[in-house]
Design a protein that fits this description.
The chain has about 475 residues and is α/β, with parallel strands linked by helices. It has three domains: about 60 residues, no CATH class; about 220 residues, Rossmann fold (3-Layer(aba) Sandwich); about 160 residues, 3-Layer(aba) Sandwich (Rossmann fold). About 40% of the residues lie in helices and about 15% in strands. It is built from 18 helices and 14 strands. It is globular, with a radius of gyration of 29 Å. The relative contact order is 0.08.
């Protein structure tokens, strides 16, 4: 029976490999790599990365996978580090700012914040971001954000994915902000990224004609003008992939909260959302929660101030005069947390003074009319009642350094630490994945030396200082 072309090709390949392995015909690794590269180029199977690599392929790594460090493609775009194109975008913005006003030098200084933002936006699925560094985004933050969007667009296009336009929708409260953001995005035009700003400063007819002649990847707009153009069907925002709300407090001062919700509802996809908000105004937390649809978020901040890093975290101080009353007080607070929790399911971190105190609390917390399931190995238990479900993890201050408590939206400090700095570490480290969090503290007579510094922390964060704590701090 005659052999097919595939079988003959496989036979020729076996003979060729055998000839290459033979000692009398063996060549050096460098020459073998050059031959392999030439053969792939002639057969039309040359890798896209081959021309950009500084090392030649080898028989052990004929496609330069080791040097190219292939990224994983799983359920969308997921990468291990920013690409060189992102750095090119940042440098273009920096050079343009330096030529105009001598600025732009601080773009790379915010690199740690930018990489965290890139990780959130490039994850699969992407994570929403809430930044509480200040009232609005700085020029450096905007540069990192638009460069991250450029990087994602470039990667998608390289994979053959059709990118909907606009890809990024950047909402600003005023015309001045729109012009500022547009000036940051302008240097990206030479890199193939077009941006358009929409604001009341120009006629709507002019903007409609401009949108017809251009399909921008980035759209910077005020809410009012955007809704007007959407109503006239001059722009379609249903496929937006990234949504930025710059200055949530400013939008609330302009009574534009409903307009933001209308824009969010007009986006039919599930965009990655980044919100910049003032940390001192707690009234914006409800609007942020509504815009984010209660999804898991990531809190970011460019500074280390307690006020910024603990934004929208409520601090409540409970007095307990005697030590033997502490366990009943903890029971009462847990019942209150369970009753007030919106989802009727809560995850609470309970912090005790020592391991002995932690075990004592775990064994003594038996709520009335509740079913408590204990796990003595991990000092954790679950409370099931008619009200809801609460999972409690008990830790002591010594083991807190090795505990990841970012996922806990509620922390109950049964025993205050010797220094208020340890308390602020918990305050700024908890509730990193929710908009609103809570920290409860039980204050006893032994904690009197901490009254003044604790009052200062509460005041700086805009929290209510109880009368008993104010009297102790002033005495």
């Amino acid at each position: 029976m005659a052999k097919g072309d595939d079988a003959l090709a496989r036979k020729r390949s076996r003979v060729r490999r055998k000839r290459m392995r033979s000692s009398e015909n063996a060549v050096s690794a460098r020459v073998a790599g050059i031959i392999a590269s030439k053969r792939r180029r002639k057969s039309g199977k040359r890798r896209g990365c081959e021309g950009m690599c500084f090392s030649l392929p080898t028989p052990e790594d004929p496609f330069n996978d080791i040097h190219a460090k292939k990224r994983k493609e799983k359920d969308g775009a997921e990468y291990d580090r920013p690409s060189k194109f992102l750095v090119v975008c940042l440098n273009a913005i920096r050079d343009a700012a330096a030529s105009e006003d001598g600025g732009g030098g601080g773009i790379h200084d915010t690199g740690s914040w930018g990489v965290e933002l890139w990780n959130c936006c490039s994850a699969a699925p992407p994570t929403d971001v809430l930044d509480t560094s200040g009232l609005c985004a700085t020029r450096e933050q905007t540069a990192w954000l638009v460069s991250t969007a450029c990087d994602i667009v470039a990667r998608k296009e390289k994979l053959g994915v059709v990118v909907s336009c606009p890809f990024l929708l950047y909402l600003v409260p005023s015309q001045e902000n729109a012009v500022q953001v547009r000036s940051i995005c302008k240097p990206l035009k030479s890199l193939g990224i077009h941006s358009v700003s929409l604001h009341p400063g120009a006629s709507i007819e002019h903007q409609m004609s401009g949108l017809k002649s251009c399909e921008p990847e980035f759209l910077i707009s005020t809410p009012e003008r955007l809704l007007e153009l959407v109503a006239l069907k001059a722009i379609d925002i249903s496929g937006v992939s990234m949504l930025v709300i710059d200055g949530l407090k400013c939008f609330m001062d302009l009574n534009a909260g409903d307009k933001l919700c209308s824009i969010r509802d007009a986006i039919l996809s599930s965009p990655q959302i980044t919100i910049f908000s003032d940390p001192s105004d707690r009234s914006v937390a409800a609007l942020a929660t509504k815009l984010l649809h209660g999804r898991k978020i990531r809190r970011l901040c460019t500074n280390d101030s307690v006020t910024s890093r603990s934004a929208f975290v409520t601090q409540k101080i409970h007095i307990c005069p005697r030590k033997d009353q502490k366990a009943p007080k903890v029971k009462q607070i847990l019942e209150q947390i369970l009753t007030n929790h919106a989802k009727k399911t809560a995850k609470v971190l309970l912090v005790a003074a020592s391991n002995h105190e932690a075990q004592h609390l775990s064994s003594s917390l038996k709520l009335q009319n509740c079913t408590v399931t204990d796990d003595s190995h991990d000092n954790s238990f679950t409370i099931c009642s008619s009200v809801g479900l609460i999972n409690v993890l008990v830790k002591d201050w010594e083991s807190m350094t090795a505990t990841n408590f970012e996922d806990f939206d509620t922390v109950l400090v049964a025993d205050l630490p010797p220094s208020v700095d340890e308390y602020t570490d918990v305050l700024t480290g908890a509730s990193r994945h929710v908009v609103v969090g809570e920290v409860h503290c039980i204050f006893s007579s032994a904690d009197a030396p901490l009254a003044k510094p604790l009052s200062q922390v509460l005041t700086s964060c805009g929290q209510v200082v109880p009368e008993f704590l104010r009297k102790l701090a002033s005495s």
